[in-house]
User: Fold this.
Amino acid sequence: MVHKALSYIIHTFILMICLLIAGSCTVVRHDQQTESEEDELSIYFDNGEFDAKLYVESVWEEAVLPRIKEEAVEAEVLFESLNSDPSTAIEKYGYRIEVTAPYNFMVKGSAIITQANVKSAAATISIDANGPDGKPVEIQIGPVIKGTAVRDSMDFIHFEDFTNQLEFANISREMNNHIKATILASLKREELVGAKIRYLGAFQWVEGEGVLITPVDLVVEE
Amino acid sequence: MKKTLFLLVLFSFVFAAAGVWAGGQQDAESEDEQSNLIYIITPSHDNPFFKTEAVAAEDEAEKLGYQTRVLSHDDDANLQDQQFGNAIAAGAAAIICDNAGADASIGPIRRAKEAGIPTFLIDREINETGLAVSQIVSNNYQGAVIGGEKFVELMGESGKYVELVGKESDTNAGIRSKGYHEVIDQYPDLEMVARQSANWSQTEAYSKMESIIQANPDIKGVICGNDTMAMGAMAALKTADMGDVIVVGFDGSNDVRDSILAGDIKATVLQTCAYNARLAVQQADKYIKTGSTGAPEKQLTDCVLIDKANADKLDNFVLSE
Assistant:
């Protein structure tokens, strides 16, 4: 008992000495921010060391396209499956990167373009396919491409391999830029309605909503 | 006076910690018992977002049989340093932390690791891996992108707008702004006429918005880095009889939910903060008991868009099915 009390006193004494030493030091804030001018807020988080464009170029032909070609399901089969038994369809064909995210699906098919929705910068074409729940099926044709369906369908791209969420986000942006530059640039946007196409791509599916495919290949047949 | 008070508080913490420490030492001598104390360190509870995540973590920890010590670092990296010091001195079993800076937090997390105390980060990430056991990161960038897309849609892809940015020292202020611009800047007919930081604050957003309105009476939209600033901006706009200006926020607070339901603010982005906090505690528990969480260090959780269609299902940062 005496031993314990003594030990307590010694501990307290040591702590007090530590505090006296600490108290005599000047505490310097190391999180001070310099006031920046309006419109010039700096984003220090993005240090620019990671070149997402280079990364995407290095994996596109070798890994992205092969995976989608390999895994893509025929549109009629996939949509019918999502329509009749979503949980089985998800288990069989779906892929997601984390538990709170929607599932992604890779898809391929042939279709007729029924409508070109080109008023918005995030332009799409509607195709004559029956989406789950009878919802419409659209393919993004840019210039603005929404979402991260292509990146999030890749089983070799993991968030933890990158420094932070900006690097991870930049991969998706560069993938979409790559799609714009290679697949969509040559699309004759005035002659779309009625044309027959073949497509390959990915979409993120939320039950009850329409299907919005990001294409990785889109060919208008003559 | 403030300094004296601060020192007093510090003293009391250290003594409390010393008590636990000494107690722990004695226990260790007698039966080698493991610490049962989890430190929960977050930004100020003045913001209901951080309060929710702290309360969720505390609740989950107590459910799993832990004692908790809940602290706020007020986004002050020095205060966070001291709190980590306390946790180390107390021989805590684990630290759950929404950190005070992607770079400034690396030091204290490393010291905790060296002292054998695992840290589980929630919400914000740090610029280093291999120090924290888990980083359950709220995907603010993805959230900003869906918020930005909704804003663009509401604006009809054209018009003048204002951006209110959060506190610059906060990583997420930068991430959200970058996400917004990633989307908005692709639309040439959307013109940003002012961009200012209102430091996450409702009152600051109100006063900044007041002066922005003076110079730009023809604005059509305001996109905000968080919900408290959205509330401030909306109030200033309504005072100026400009209540039909499109305001979009970020966080998913009950205040903004009510504003959306009343037809004022148009949309916000929900971060699943309560879910993330509970997940972090569950992983801490698993790690303490088995030495592994079974999950990768960096885990990303998606945000969800809240608008008139689903606002009524939102309560305390949880969206019911």
